[in-house]
Design brief:
8-stranded antiparallel β-barrel, 6 helices, alpha+beta, about 40% helix
Length: about 280
């Protein structure tokens, strides 16, 4: 599903007159809000996956009760539309089922309710529709592309985490930053990932020896290919923990993703503390 098609669906649902006009102030407000919403999505999705994006969208629309402005509505709508299109792209390229929050006509209903909360007239609603299309339509291809085309690498000296083993690779688990990073990749993958490569990025968590929920985005790496992101969840349990999710499966002969698996090696990422070994 392309972004422009999503926005046009909103316009069709509202059955607004294409001749309706509104002042330039509304367009500027929509543009500013849309830019903020689309930018916010990248960080939210990186930390919390599509479920985190759904929570952020719901909270954003809820805030309209206190701040019912056009700019805030545009921020919520842009966040909503961008997340819905990334979710649709996951279905198209990975075969991942649609996230219920973004399926069907729910997006259009949320935007329509937001317009009502913001008190927009029929003419202003039509102008809002066109302004959102102008603000996001040109970036349609970018928002449906995978989140990154190259691995994220961070300086190891910027981390203050604990040492863990992951399938023979030495890792740094920095709970305060919400990242798990390769410190010393095992020999078999040293040509694909280098020290500092991020395996997982998500919400920060506390180093509590009891069970602490963790969720975010992990990455599958293959030499010469862009990282393949997927959502994982787990619980931090001190000395050992694991993260699980439906992991992308690549073709053996190319970078193409042919499906997802809940039983592959990437579907369950296990970590064991080596702190006491040093």
């Amino acid at each position: 599903m392309r972004l422009a098609a999503s926005i046009l669906t909103i316009a069709a649902m509202l059955t607004l007159s294409p001749a309706a006009m509104a002042g330039p102030d509304l367009s500027r407000s929509v543009s500013a809000g849309a830019e903020r919403g689309a930018a916010a999505f990248r960080g939210i999705y990186g930390e919390g996956g599509i479920s985190g994006a759904a929570e952020a969208v719901e909270a954003c629309y809820g805030s309209l009760k206190k701040e019912a402005s056009v700019e805030k509505l545009a921020e919520c709508a842009a966040l909503d539309i961008t997340a819905a299109n990334v979710d649709a792209q996951a279905l198209a390229s990975l075969g991942v089922p649609r996230y219920a929050f973004f399926s069907g006509p729910k997006l259009e209903r949320r935007v329509a309710a937001g317009m009502k909360a913001a008190g927009l007239t029929k003419a202003e609603r039509a102008a809002f529709d066109r302004a959102i299309m102008a603000a996001l339509g040109g970036g349609a291809e970018e928002t449906t592309r995978p989140a990154s085309t190259k691995a994220e690498v961070v300086p190891l000296n910027s981390l203050a985490g604990l040492p863990f083993d992951h399938n023979g690779s030495e890792m740094v688990v920095d709970a305060a930053k919400g990242v798990i990073v390769y410190a010393r990749p095992k020999a078999s993958i040293a040509g694909t990932v280098k020290p500092g490569t991020v395996l997982y990025r998500g919400r920060p968590w506390s180093l509590d020896p009891r069970s602490v929920p963790i969720r975010g985005t992990a990455f599958v790496y293959k030499k010469g290919c862009a990282p393949a992101p997927y959502e994982v969840r787990g619980e931090y349990r001190g000395q050992a923990f694991s993260l699980s999710g439906a992991a992308p499966v690549r073709s053996k002969t190319s970078c193409d993703i042919t499906g997802v698996s809940t039983s592959s090696g990437n579907a369950r990422l296990a970590f064991e503390s080596t702190y006491m070994d040093e």
